[in-house]
Write a structure and sequence with these properties.
Structural class: mainly alpha
Number of helices: 2
Number of domains: 1
Largest sheet: none
Order of helices and strands: HH
Number of strands: 0
Strand content: under 5%
Shape: rod-shaped
Length: about 140
């Protein structure tokens, strides 16, 4: 009230100066806090940039590894399919070989029976010992 009516004393002015000094010190504290916050935000921004670059780099590496793994998987699948076909073809081939061996064995037995009917060492067949019904049976 005293300042409104123009009556101010030295003590009032001194108190006013103290309040202004307090405000200045609070302003300095606020400015210091703002500088610290800006510094923190800048360092945080730098950290975020470094982390985002690292994440981008790692995601590219991961993508390349996944592509490489997929290519390896496809190669393994092709190899397994080739092995399956090879094994199947070998088994079919072995089956045919066994059938040929069996047919040759039967032919050998038939020839042995047929040769037992022969009387001469020249290899001619005696028709009196080997009847035509038996001969037809040996051939079929």
């Amino acid at each position: 009230m005293q300042t409104l009516f123009g009556i101010a004393t030295v003590s009032d002015l001194h108190m006013l100066h103290e309040k202004l000094d307090e405000l200045k010190s609070k302003d300095v504290d606020i400015a210091h806090s703002l500088v610290n916050q800006v510094t923190y935000v800048k360092s945080l921004e730098h950290t975020v940039r470094v982390n985002s670059d690292a994440i981008l780099n790692l995601s590219i590496i991961l993508k390349n590894e996944i592509i490489q793994s997929h290519d390896n998987y496809q190669q393994i699948i092709r190899d397994i399919a080739w092995l399956n076909m090879t094994i199947y073809n070998h088994s079919v081939l072995f089956l045919v070989i066994r059938q040929i061996e069996f047919a040759l064995l039967q032919l050998t037995r038939l020839l042995m029976k047929f040769s037992s009917c022969a009387t001469h060492s020249v290899g001619k067949i005696a028709y009196n010992y080997c009847k035509s019904q038996n001969f037809a049976q040996y051939i079929t």
